[in-house]
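Sample intake sheet
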Amino acid sequence: MEYKHKTVLLNETVENVLVQDGKKYVDATFGGGGHSSLILNSAKNIELFVFDKDLVAIENGKEKFKDYDNIIFINDDFSNIKKDILNQNVDKVDGIIADFGVSSYQLDTAYRGFSYMQDAPLDMRMDRKNTLSAYEVINNYSEDELYKIIKDYGEEKRAKYIARTIIERRSISPIKNTFELVDIIMAAVPARYREQGKHSARKTFQAIRIEVNQELKSIKTFINDAFELLSTGGRLSVITFHSLEDRIVKNAFKDFSTGCTCPPDFPVCVCGKKERGKLITKKPILPSAEEIEENSRAKSAKLRVIEKL
């Protein structure tokens, strides 16, 4: 099956990890291989380790890059980056990139159940080996659990009513398909509460997807372990697509690049905290108007970069 995906902020992401001959790099979210392709063609004699927990992406990548002997495929969640890289007998790498967006392939492949625009079984698993699916979340979580997920992960103002309506509908029969869930959400979000030009189901679908794939937990683990894996002067280049992801990355980068936190009236530092990183992007890099016009899914992307000291 062909894996189609329009890579966001392609040049900006790769340029900022300063790919050099003979160095080691990681593409933590391989997807369709856009970033990886540019890395491989930016320098000589490099080693590239690529991660994707979606086996379809890995299988397509192996076919796409079958003529390359310097790319190592790892079918795992990027939160396991430290363990998996150490298992390759590598203790430090020179650059890491990650793109936290859901791939166009996953969104556009109806049977995966990610999209509220196509009817499909409620699934949303990036890793098909996982037992937790959107069906389990929607049909088995309590009203309070659903409310919290939709409110926190979707930042949905009507979370209480959506959760309650889900409970009412599933008491009649299980909710099996994406369009059933869309109908429930629309019933819980009257016209006067709907955002003009934006689908009322998008925030709830985002929330359920995040819960199914434990995305925010994975991101927190990844950011810390990826930074630890960097060699001195190595860079971590990360693309986020919504405020929850961006907040995690922004706060982690701030912590890495902040030194002494003692009150200013202390004569000497007693906390012992030292800067471990240097912010390369004081403000995130955003897609150009031209890129957004070519790929509407790029419009919410933000790129942040940090260098290890």
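Comment: The chain is about 40% helix and 15% strand. The beta strands are 24-27, 47-51, 71-74, 93-99, 230-240, 277-279, 302-308.
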